[in-house]
Amino acid sequence: MHWVDWLIVASFLGLNIGIGVFFSRKGGKDMDSFFVSGRNMKWYIAGASMIATSFASDTPLWVGSLVRQYGIHAAWQYWSPLIGCALGVALFSRVWRRTKVVTDVEMLELRYSGKGAQTLRGLTAAVGALLICPMIIGWVCKAMVTIAQEALGVSGQTFSVFGSEIPAEVAVTIVVMTCAVIVSTTGGLMGAAFSDFIQFIIATLGAFMLSWLAIKEVGGLGAMVEQLSNHSEWLGRDMNIAPQISMKVTAEGQPGAMSIWNAIGFFGILWWGNALCGGYQAQRILACKDTKHASNALLMFTLIYFAVISWPWISVALASIIVFPDMGEAGHDAAYPRMLLHVLPIGLRGIMMGTMIAAFTSTVQTMFNWGSSYVVNDLWRRFIVREASDKHYVRVSRILTVCIAVSGGIIAFTADSIQDLLGIFYVVGVAGAVVGVLRWLWWRLTVTAEIAAFVVNWIVGVVMLFGHKFIGLETPLLDPVMGTLLQLPDGVSFTTGHDLLGARMLFVMVVGALTAVIVSLFTKPADQELLKKFVTRTKIHRPGWMPVIRDIEGYVPAQTVPQILMDWVLVMATVLALLFTLANVVRDRLPQAGGMLVLFIALLCWVLRRTSKELGEEDID
């Protein structure tokens, strides 16, 4: 990094802080302004903010590592959640916006009542803010450390602070995180969202710039494809993008293939959580002007995040296989930042590093604001200090933002790798997804059942992951049942085997779902009048809610089930058409790319027309 590059990076950080300061007055005016931007956010701001938040500094490193090791088809670990996001566009983004709550867990007291609802709200908020949010911050910071080591050239250097020697890459990460804290604590969601919007543009342009120069470095698309096709040691030399699924189960995983159990996990389970649009996505959706803006924001996110932005990362990874066939001890994660230094001249390096830092700050800013919204809105204001002024709650939010940043940093600097953190998140994070969907689709689900499923999911998941066994019952319980079903070879553990990640996800999800259904049937249903208000506000479909809807005179749902299913399929087809368009471009198959582009445009027009017809006249405020 030349001093010119460092100056450009500093300018990016200064711009980010300036945005936060600019929105400090509006963002800190009251709770709605700080956490949901006054509910006046337009779809393109909300959509860009979701993209920038999800496109963190870790994402190109992770996707690039998968492609380098196994081939383009391994990116389905990244693409598979688009199934759920498409359902979110068709249904969940719309019902979320109609609730008019500040956070997604606040909705629990619209759905349930009494002490049970309060307990579930507080428990969910605590886990989300104090565990899940710092965990996400942790793996993003882990990637920032790798970038600092490889791209900034500070590996092996140290700084002396108060008599202690701190690795330079850690110091750089702390400085960047501090800038993100300043934006989050001053401008709130409004500052973070507009900062995200600018960072989305910068990061996207930077990713495509690096991709173009990386492909040029290896002689162009045709030359790159030809060299990779003849690369005998690379598992993805056929350039196939279809998922490669193997029936075998091994301890280390099948090279270049996804086990059948992991395929079930990624294509059958993982996306349920994305469909719910909870957490930071719900926060953006709740901040939108109306339901149409909310649905279009998620559509923009789904299209660009899954079908567009991944291809620059993939193309850089493909070029890196030719330029750096052996990454040595640095590992495949380091290929992306190393390519950055290799192909970019002075000045452009600084711009690209600015885009990587922009991706990092946009994600952690959102995590800070989202985590503090849970603690303040769903714990502090709900249970501890109920009647304080908005200024009090905003002040507490700013203090808690710093605490969440510190906890995320601790996780980052103690975790072994990004993939380890993702493995933990996949199993424990999706455990409650089916229960969350049942909350919307089945009137009979009770708060007692949700609490029971929540506790069971976390006990089973944590003991399985961190105890490396299933409560000591692996042999007598799992061998007779799962042993035959999984066809485990000797030495492969159900609780730790790489190829059994999907099986663990399935097991925990089924246990949680059965717990929820059984407990619901043996406990008293939620108050009927409360459910009527919930249904009337969200305009939910009839199936699953008929015992409640039949007592609501003249009830008309916003969508029928056939409409929802049709919208879901159309959105999925639209995203896949765009994904395959760019896939064919990268693989130098331009006629096929042209045909898929025409299909994409036709499908997108159809989706937008249906959305306008279904939501055009709806005014939820």
Detailed description of the structure:
This protein is an all-alpha fold. The chain has 2 domains: 3-415 and 558-615, Sodium/glucose cotransporter (Up-down Bundle), CATH 1.20.1730; 431-526, no CATH class. Helices cover 72% and strands 2% of the residues. α1 (3-22) crosses α10 and α9 crosses α18. It starts with a helix and ends in a 6-residue tail after the last helix. The model is unreliable at 471-478 (pLDDT under 50).
Brief overview:
The protein is an all-alpha fold and 621 residues long. The protein has helices spanning 3-22, 24-27, 31-36, 43-54, 58-70, 76-79, 82-99, 108-111, 114-150, 168-217, 221-229, 260-276, 279-287, 291-308, 310-323, 335-343, 348-384, 390-412, 418-429, 433-441, 447-466, 474-486, 501-521, 528-538, 546-549, 561-586, 590-615, and strands spanning 158-161, 164-167, 245-246, 258-259. It is 72% helix and 2% strand.
Strand percent estimate: under 5%
Please report the distance between the alpha carbons of the first and last residues.
51 Å
By oligomeric state, this entry counts as single chain
CATH architecture of the largest domain: Up-down Bundle
* Fraction in helix: over 70%
Question: Major sheet: order of its strands?
Answer: 1-2
Low-pLDDT parts are 471-478
Describe the main β-sheet briefly. 2 strands, antiparallel
- Look at the structure and give the mean pLDDT: 80
Determine the CATH topology of the largest domain: Sodium/glucose cotransporter
Given the C-alpha coordinates, what overall shape results?
Answer: globular
Computed over alpha carbons, the radius of gyration is 24 Å
The tally of domains stands at 2
Number of helices: 27
